[in-house]
UniProtKB/TrEMBL annotation:
Binding sites annotated in the UniProt record for [4Fe-4S] cluster: 166, 294, 384
The protein, known as: Quinolinate synthase
Cell compartment(s), UniProt: Cytoplasm
Molecular-function GO terms, alphabetical: 4 iron, 4 sulfur cluster binding; metal ion binding; quinolinate synthetase A activity
Binding site for iminosuccinate: 102, 119, 204-206, 225, 320-322, 337
Length: 433
């Protein structure tokens, strides 16, 4: 396996076995504490909430998707039985199905993935499997939607557990963003025309297809954590300001690195008049940040970095830009999941890495690169709760249904959103600073 590839294309059985062994060892050595005792049980019963993990205390929006019950046999099956059934179904389906695993997905599921990567990499990876009739996305809802937008009409995108959403994406809903947009449009309507739009909407990939379509319709575009600066450059060439949602931290960290003063980055709090701001503040703004965040990355703090530096002098601290600004400022580097992965893969000398991102990814990197010392800045085991909902039982169920000729849990973006959302994604791909 090349260490420079952006995807881990289903690694050899030997490699997988050695990684699994290392993960088991790491789990034994890991601190005994987890953020929730419920993590020890299977995620079958999490009605009306995000379930155990980093976002369990977040407010769950009305209309949150619910996963119907699946046959008892999948709930009762042992790990060995599920393993045998998944492998058998995968073999029967062959090239007709491709399984995608997000970097943050649990190891018991990722081991069956044909590709492992971030959300946009995975959606593009699926396009390389022209023979695939089914794209089984072991990630969260917005990722499956993006794959549906980019895939052919005759390909079915399947999310093994419909309740696997993203608490950050859920923090920006269509009506709230539309209301914000209407208020801003009214506020800026009398500004002098300088050839640029008063405000350009930019959404992080982690949002619903409805919002991707919204930005496409309103002259804006999508960004990822890898290209947020490029996208903001594009937007500043065409607009006087940017409305950035749903992640305030990615917006703030990126704009700050580009020299935008914090005073010109007010926060928009939904359901408050003018988002809780004075009109003058919004007129002077360069980037209006939505009040959204990732509960996984919000757990990191500068104290953890200070402790890592004390315990491991010379440690290289890399954090994800969804972390709060104080954490990014205290770290040595900040970058996307792919950046973190490449930084470790490219390190030629044994190095100590302290990483600020989701625990499953950090443990997997530690297992894959035993020549380095790699640990998560957060000593408590606290996975992304929504990603955690994809249990091997659900994967076995959707695969065996496909073998039987039935497509369950298909994610379909409505036709009226497809076109505009695709425009927003295409603008992102075409964006040049
Ligand atoms: S890690 Fe955060 S942003 Fe990513 S899927 Fe989980 S809640 Fe959403």
């Amino acid at each position: 396996m090349s260490t420079n590839t952006i995807f881990t294309d289903a690694a050899s059985a030997q490699h997988n076995a050695s990684v699994a062994q290392n993960i088991a060892r790491l789990n034994l050595l890991a601190p005994g504490s987890t953020c929730s005792d419920d993590l020890k049980s299977n995620p079958w019963d999490t009605p009306g909430g995000y379930g155990p993990g980093a976002s369990e205390t977040d407010e769950v929006p009305a209309g949150y998707p619910v996963q119907g019950s699946i046959p008892q046999e999948y709930l009762k099956a042992s790990d060995q039985e599920l393993d045998a059934r998944i492998l058998a179904a995968k073999e029967t389906l062959g090239e007709r199905a491709v399984i995608l695993g997000h970097f943050y997905q649990r190891d018991e599921v990722v081991k069956y993935a044909d590709f492992v990567g971030d959300s946009f990499q995975l959606a593009n990876a699926a396009l390389t499997r022209q023979t695939a009739e089914a794209i089984v996305f072991c990630g969260v809802h917005f990722m499956a939607e993006t794959a549906d937008i980019l895939s052919r009409e005759d390909q079915a995108v399947i999310l093994p557990n419909l309740a696997a959403g993203c608490s950050m994406a859920d923090m920006a809903d269509g009506p709230s963003v539309q209301q914000c947009w209407d208020e801003l449009t009214e506020l800026y309507k009398d500004e002098q025309d300088d050839g640029r739009l008063p405000v350009i909407p930019v959404t992080y990939m982690n949002c619903s297809a409805e919002l991707k379509a919204f930005v496409g319709r309103n002259g804006g575009l999508v960004c990822t954590s890898s290209n947020a600066a490029t996208v903001l450059e594009w937007a500043f060439e065409r607009g006087r300001r940017v409305l950035f949602f749903p992640d305030q931290h990615l917006g703030r960290n990126t704009a700050k690195a580009m020299g935008v003063p914090l005073e010109q980055m007010p926060m928009w709090t939904p359901r408050k008049a003018l988002g809780g701001n004075e009109a003058a503040t919004l007129r002077d703004a360069k980037v209006i940040l939505w009040h959204g965040f990732c509960s996984v990355h919000k757990r990191f703090n500068p104290g953890q970095i200070a402790k890592a530096r004390e315990e491991y002098p010379g440690v290289r601290v890399i954090v994800h830009p969804e972390c709060p600004m104080e954490v990014v400022d205290a770290a040595d580097e900040a970058g996307s999941t792919d950046y973190i992965r490449r930084a470790i893969a490219d390190a030629t000398e044994p190095t100590v890495f302290a990483i600020g991102t989701e625990i499953n990814m950090v443990n997997r990197l530690a297992a894959e690169y035993p020549q380095h010392t790699i640990f998560c800045l957060d000593p408590v085991i606290c996975p992304c709760s929504t990603m955690y909902r994809i249990h091997p039982g659900y994967l076995a169920w959707v695969l065996e249904e496909l073998v039987a000729g039935r497509v369950v849990n298909r994610i379909t973006v409505p036709a009226e959103q497809q076109g505009d959302a695709k425009i927003a994604l295409e603008r992102m791909l075409a964006a040049r600073p």
